[in-house]
Queue: 2 jobs
Job 1
Amino acid sequence: MKIHNKRKFLSFLKFKRDFQKYGLEKARSYELILHWLNTRLSRNQFLVLSGILVGCTAGLAGVVLKTLVHSIHNFITTKVHFEYQILFYIIFPFLGIVLTTLVVLSIFKGQDRKGIGAILYEIAQNSSIVSSVKMYSQIIQSAITVSLGGSAGLESPIAVTGAAIGSNYAQTYRLTYKERTLLLAAGATAGIASAFNAPIAGIMFAFEILLTGVVFTDFIPLVVAAVCGSLLSRILLQEDVLFRFYTREAFNYLNVPYYLILGIFSGLYARYFVVISQKVEHFIKNLKFSRLRKAMFGGAVLSLLCVLFPPLFGEGYDTVKAFTNGNTHSIIENSLFRYFEIKNFTIIIFLVLVLLLKAFATSFTIFSGGNGGNFAPSLFAGGTVGYLFAIICQQLGFENVPVTNLVLVGMAGTMSGVMYAPLTAIFLIAESSFGYDLFIPLMIVSIISYLIAKWFSPISPELKSLADQGKIFTNKHDENLLFSLKTEDFIDRYSQTISINAPVTELFDLVKNGSKNIFAVVNDDKTLKGVLTLDDIRPYLFSNDEVSATLIQMMKTPVAIIHPENQPLEILKIFDDTGVWNLPVVDERNQFIGFISKSTILMSYRQLLKDYSN
């Protein structure tokens, strides 16, 4: 027994020396252990272990963020007298956005790509390699924004944090692109699962939003990561922090007309939310202000909205829970509407204004400098749509209106239309309300809302923004892989050039002594004037007569010009349109940089596909 243990110990020491040899001498002990396990376990076994570790870490990050924000928000909204709350609503939302912007500018050097779009960008543009800074930057920024009253959600920052954890774990242990993408998605899955204590919804989020068009045979890491994140949430989070709804009515098929109409309202409101968000984003981008002044402007707008309508303060989940518990009067009593006689008409007017202004509050929070996402705002707005629809039906004389159920399915409907994620919305509400018998109304409302959203715009706002920037291709995942390739890597900077004024004999010497079959003709300042191929030169090279033609007569104008900012997918389309295999690359001053070859791009693309499929 002692001999066996000694052999194991010596084997581990040898393993450690080998890693020191390959530049990992600074690796921590637990990293060495995991590296060793990676060499001993099968690929699937190590991925399952990785899913557990990534899931637990991402889940813990989500728990910490939710607990911190809830504690601060709870102090402001419940421990402070109404008159002081108004003062807090004036100061804190403004302060939250301004402080977040200052943190981004001073600590994170102005890098503030946020939201689900940040994950999609890294998958499409950066081979699923996420900066290690995002493992904590999103938590810090969103904690400041939302805890001080930013009208946004924590779930998107948690998902980005989890994705960064998964990506950096995969980078540390030198996993392939496919495995790196899988663990990135596992981290985001665990983050969503911990935020809502809804593991199935977390998995649906990964497949529906992050991995669109991707077929994974190894989905077990996603499952174990979601379970780990959800378990940590259930164990560590207090009951009032959990996204949980216990009061609801049993499903009655006679209520289907309610759900059909609510689906239409949810879809229309979701479209309104998206349009307002886009217009506010465009408005803020066009302001001739510095980033700090934009933050101050957005913070001032948000503070004003929160003073007038306190439900716009923070995530808003407490308001939705009040709807399901029948405590609507308590919401209005904490606002300036307390000075009016609270009747059903007053409640309806109040909720209509809250709905209309929620889109503005969220947009100013996110785009003026705060950090957050649209998960919580869409759920809050959806619950408000459902409750507003229910009390209007009651005022019209309808009996037995399923108020709580309409609130719940309204959340799923609006989230489906805003996020373009009906399956995520359906399972999220089903898990959060223990309402699996509500699957039929959840599906009715979510699908109707989703179809309305698709009718207005075929792709989600997150994808559309990246597609408009040329950062992602929205139809085929194989073509999206091209976005992980960099044009800079394919430029042959050792291409041979010749001066336009050079004698033909110099060109012949270049052909005889060189190894290239295409040449750039440039003037004295390296400006591209034309190109020459061996086919152009061959008739003169093997002629027995003295060559009288000049380079100007021999060269041809290139059929197309490539610029360094062109994407590989765009370049391949140019190659297909022109029918050539080599094209010159020039800068903004038309100075020659080098040639780019179609075959080089295709070879790299095939290798990427091979790595991804292995």
Job 2
Amino acid sequence: MCGFVGAFDLNSGGKPLAEGLRDELRVHVLEMSKRIRHRGPDWSGVYTGENAILSHERLSIVDPLSGKQPLVSDDGKIILAANGEIYNHKKIREAIGDKYHFRTGSDCEVIIPLYKECIQNGFDFSSMIEKLSGIFAFALYDSERDVYLVARDEIGVIPLYQGWDKNGHYYVASELKALEGECVTIEEFPNGCYLWSGEKNSSPVKWYYRDWESYEAVKNNQCAADKKGRVINPEVIEKVRNGLESAVKAQLMSDVPYGVLLSGGLDSSIIAAITQKYSKKRIESDSKESAWWPQLHSFAVGLEGSPDLVAAKKAADYIGTVHHEVHFTIQEALDALPDVIYHIETYDITTVRASTPMYLLARVIKSMGIKMVLSGEGSDELFGGYLYFHKAPNAEEFHEELVRKMSKLHLYDCLRANKSLMAWGVEGRVPFLDKDFIDIAMRLNPEDKMNIILLSDGSEKNGGTHQRMEKWILRKAFEDMLPEDICWRQKEQFSDGVGYNWIDTLKRITEEKVSDAEFARRENRFPVNPPKTKEEYYYREIYSRLFPSDSAAKCVPHEAGVACSTAKALEWDAAWKNMDEPSGRAINGVHNDSYK
């Protein structure tokens, strides 16, 4: 995983850029690129052409010796700057055969011959990008045609921003900070989209479509359990297990030391257990050779005595990882807040709360020589793991909320996981968000994910309803790989699990630091997305010092919710109407006591 800055349309207005100005702009792009060097501390590269400049900061995970970027095609006409991992690059290479001469072992180089093939066969960029299995954002420049192609992965695991300066030059960058102060307009480049400059008035086009976006497409799919909660189709559960194991195995592609994040919750524990299963062999050799780093290291973070640390130790002992506990103090976390907000580029309360421990953890991971970690992000969005899903009124509402949550992952969990880790040059991989596994999980019948099952005919006379633990089908799929009390541990949101006192302190301190008078004038101080709470106001003050433009403020999501819900789900419970609290503890009657 890396970072890049691309500048295009240098000859805007039809006038060639003067040579001296091009040199100046090249230096300027390099300065912009330097702001994101934390994403790629291993190597820097730059390409300068007649109408484009591409600068790249590399974090070498695959092919450290020859995979320098920007990558150049075998004929020297196509230049590529990419950030991410293409997990199926070996299969793509085999399919391409001798039609293209690969110059490196980089997994990202396969994008170039796929582009060539696409140009020859009718410019179907959606089909081209669909062939990629991985997490990615890239900018490709075709110097022969003087056109560029920009694209981002389906979920938005990899960040990407776009902007325009006063001269009409178009920029893309891996982080907002590279564009702030340079562009008069800055936007997030939409996930699951591409932009092709070969069309007049080009703008991002969606390439990622799935049938499961509609409830009608999944409502009649086979269920794993009957109305009484008894497993009647075990093959459905087996498909979940096989799909996730395949995703984890594919994502162990690495030429550098890697580890796992282990909070002790269900999701990270499953990823750690599967990783341990395959960690003894080198995936690049089709598991025929011993792994270069055969001992798997796991990492947990929390306040002394936090729920996550206790559970993570138990899971690690069972799985057999070399486990590391990272303790932080509240003061250390508070001191880190400005740096955290600078790196994650958001003032969203949920994200700031959860990113701070992750940021502190990443620093320790980097110090131990680990350059890549696998984590459990995405599971709650796929299976309805957040506690508020217990209040979903029916399967249709449940599924539609999942679709909404999946569409917003790039604004929250993916942003946090990527930027908190990459602040220290550590790559995060997210097997739950593997493209094929997403299809498996989202095509499950929503009845199998519901936290309420009907007993008998569903009437109160015949038993009514029964509460079932969130993500039960995922727990069932992996119950033989984990300790029982880990497999069936209730959901703890990361910012809660690291220690409840962390959030409680943030609320108290921000209440003290932001006066009533300041908060009353919040709409004058922040006309774009006025803060809804004093905690958000406090983060917004820090953010505005680092990113003062209105464009930067608009790049941050601003939506009411409870326990990480979308605004729409607030309709599920009348008591939530005036709530705006992301902690899982906000869901009374569900947190901690649902399953006694």
